[in-house]
Amino acid sequence: MQPLIEVCGLHYAYDDGTLALRGVNFRLDPGESVALLGANGSGKTTFVLHLNGLLGGGDDPQPHVAVCGLPLTRANLGLVRRKVGLVFQDSDNQLFMPTVLEDVAFGPLNLGKSPAEAIEVARHALATTGMAEAEERAPYHLSAGEKKRVALAGILAMDPEILVLDEPTTFLDPPGQRSLAELLRNLPQAKIVVTHDTAFARSVCTRAVFFQRGAVVADGRIEEVVERFRWDPYLANSRSER
């Protein structure tokens, strides 16, 4: 079985010299849902930004990252970004059009769909996320949970094979977290969930990868990984990684 994502020995340093990733190895197979755990500054977000070319993916071949068999190169960025849908921690970073429907249709339009086709797939994505009745509302009038669902709908409208969610429970109350977990469990895409919330991770994922100081130090069944580290999100964070 070809993995959806394969990362081998990935290193990354920021321009200021901060070494953020130290030889990361990772594999995501079709149908998997994987939680990325670890303290702030352990490299989780830096890692996932490589998966759709927001980091890396320059003119030279990037042999360390492959998505659906495609090496992460500038030539492949368009294809890779269609396959990997990234939902940001702050939904306001993704919502910018006057109405919810226009926002969700924006991506399909940029993929070359006609306005009618873009509206059709946008409405389907909004129905999938339970936001069909909000299509004429302004995104900035939505609650945090509604914004998260609309941001997710915008990604689903692009028909990705992989969903990457960065701290998806941020700003959500407990009912909103439970509702989002149920929605994610019912989506067919493979998922990578960056989270500090182990209860949420358990409810969505079966496997966990634990980051520490820019390296993967555990990879296995989520209960085993959580028990091994007795992970506490308020432990002291590293001052040298992002």
Q: How would you explain this protein's 3D organization?
A:
- With 242 residues, the protein is α/β, with parallel strands linked by helices.
- The protein has eight helices and ten strands.
- The protein is 32% helix and 25% strand.
- Strands 6-7-8-3-9-10 form a six-stranded mixed sheet. The chain has a four-stranded antiparallel sheet with strand order 2-1-4-5, covered by helices on one side.
Question: Key terms for this structure?
Answer:
six-stranded mixed sheet; four-stranded antiparallel sheet; single chain; alpha/beta; 10 strands; disordered C terminus; globular; 242 residues
Structural class, by secondary structure, is alpha/beta
Order of helices and strands: EEEHEEHEHHHEHEHEEH
Mean pLDDT: 89
For the terminal residues, how far apart are their CA atoms? 33 Å
What is the radius of gyration computed over CA atoms, rounded to a whole number of angstroms?
A: 18 Å
Amount of helix:
25-40%
Could you give the order of strands across the largest sheet? 6-7-8-3-9-10
Tally of helical runs: 8
Q: What low-confidence regions span 5 or more consecutive residues with pLDDT below 50?
A: 233-242
